[in-house]
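Support request from a user on the community tier.

User writes: "When I paste my structure tokens into the form, the page sometimes reloads and wipes my input. The last time it worked, I copied everything first. Here is what I submitted, just in case something in the input itself triggers the reload:"
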């Protein structure tokens, strides 16, 4: 197959034909077959249409193809049909609006940035565990757990920055535990020599399932190398009300979602996958599996009085993507399968932990 070529000003080199990273790079041939992550047709189509959300051109994603976005920016494998326990649903009044960040100030962590590392499996797991431990310990501990600890050390059947499984990540958090982001900071793969990405934090059992680090934090500061663990995760039913009840009572949950081409340009509003690329060739319409953290919900009234219900969720594409790193997505209709596989978890917190960690304030609060 040959794509139609678009000539940009600058030196011509036939060897650069159809390079996969030519999106917007000037001075190169660009192969029209490669859909870009930031397609102006798509951005303009969304902003001209009445879709309920706005799109933006992100400079940090500029120059990437859609294939690269799906390959490097997501990174969660679809879970197998593991059966986990389900709770009985009780009839209960749920508020129209609920926002974990308001209910538990200082305990809901800011979205991190996975960069071009397909490790949303590690980022979403660490983020949900961080919030849950902070809520459950009533703020005695507010650790921001380290995704890098998972990426580098939870390597059994995991792909690191090439994607991984959340059930494996939860197994690791429960059996081995991880340290904080301050202790084991994130190492973007492009800036990291291969030897630095090997596992630099191990733990050993100190009885009753608890573990202790056997190494110092892999950085020059002297942060605490406390190990944080979780209990086994539990899967919620796909019922909207049950997911809401769980968030309100216990804190943010983890959700798997299918990311489509238009999600990368999301800026604000209530996201729903749009039809702006439906008439385009198939390479413009792609999707991949991602995982995120749902932190709340709400609804917006339409002019006719009907409501548009949404989830509030945190992504892991940094704070300048979306609504300060968060996004809102249609609720109650399994948009992008976000209600299909939702996970909750408890931290492993003892009275001893509560005494060891007097209330203290950390810098990474919202
Ligand atoms: C996005 O921004 C870049 C740099 O500011 C600009 O050159 C490019 O044309 C924009 N692309 C789209 C799709 O709007
Ligand atoms: C949730 O609460 C935080 C803190 O008050 C606020 O900044 C954010 O905008 C709220 N999110 C939504 C979607 O209302």
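"...and here is what came back when it finally went through:"
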């Amino acid at each position: 197959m040959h794509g139609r070529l678009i000539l940009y000003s600058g030196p011509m080199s036939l060897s650069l034909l159809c390079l996969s990273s030519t999106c917007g790079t000037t001075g190169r041939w660009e192969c029209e077959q490669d859909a870009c992550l930031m397609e102006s047709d798509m951005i303009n189509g969304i902003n001209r249409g009445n879709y309920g959300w706005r799109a933006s051109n992100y400079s940090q994603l500029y120059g990437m193809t859609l294939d690269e976005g799906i390959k490097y920016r997501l990174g969660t494998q679809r879970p197998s049909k593991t059966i986990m326990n389900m709770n009985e649903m009780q009839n209960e009044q749920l508020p129209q609006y609920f926002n974990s960040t308001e209910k538990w100030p200082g305990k809901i962590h800011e979205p991190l940035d996975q960069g071009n590392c397909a490790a949303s499996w590690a980022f979403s797991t660490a983020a949900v565990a961080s919030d849950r431990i902070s809520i459950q310990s009533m703020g005695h501990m507010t650790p921001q757990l380290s995704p890098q600890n998972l990426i580098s050390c939870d390597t059994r059947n995991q792909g690191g920055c090439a994607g991984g499984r959340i059930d494996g990540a939860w197994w690791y958090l429960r059996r081995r535990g991880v340290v904080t982001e301050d202790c084991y900071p994130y190492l973007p793969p492009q800036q990291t020599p291969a030897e630095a990405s090997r596992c630099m934090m191990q733990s050993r059992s100190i009885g009753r399932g608890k573990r202790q680090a056997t190494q110092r934090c892999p950085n020059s500061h002297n942060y605490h190398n406390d190990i944080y663990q979780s209990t086994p995760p539990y899967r919620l039913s796909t019922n909207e009300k049950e997911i809401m009840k769980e968030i309100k009572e216990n804190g943010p949950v983890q959700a798997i979602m299918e990311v489509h081409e238009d999600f990368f340009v999301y800026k604000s509003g209530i996201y729903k996958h749009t039809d702006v690329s439906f008439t385009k060739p198939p390479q413009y319409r792609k999707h991949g599996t991602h995982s995120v953290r749902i932190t709340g919900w709400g609804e917006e009234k339409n002019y006719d009085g009907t409501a548009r219900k949404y989830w509030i969720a945190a992504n892991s594409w940094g704070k300048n993507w979306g609504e300060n790193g968060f996004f809102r997505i249609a609720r109650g209709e399994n948009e992008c399968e976000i209600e299909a596989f939702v996970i909750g978890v408890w931290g492993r917190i003892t009275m001893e932990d509560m005494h060891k960690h007097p209330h203290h304030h950390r810098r990474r609060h919202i």
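Agent notes: The reload is a front-end session timeout and is unrelated to the input. Residues 1-21, 26-30, 83-89, 361-366 have pLDDT under 50 and may be disordered. The longest strand covers residues 287-301. Escalated to web team.
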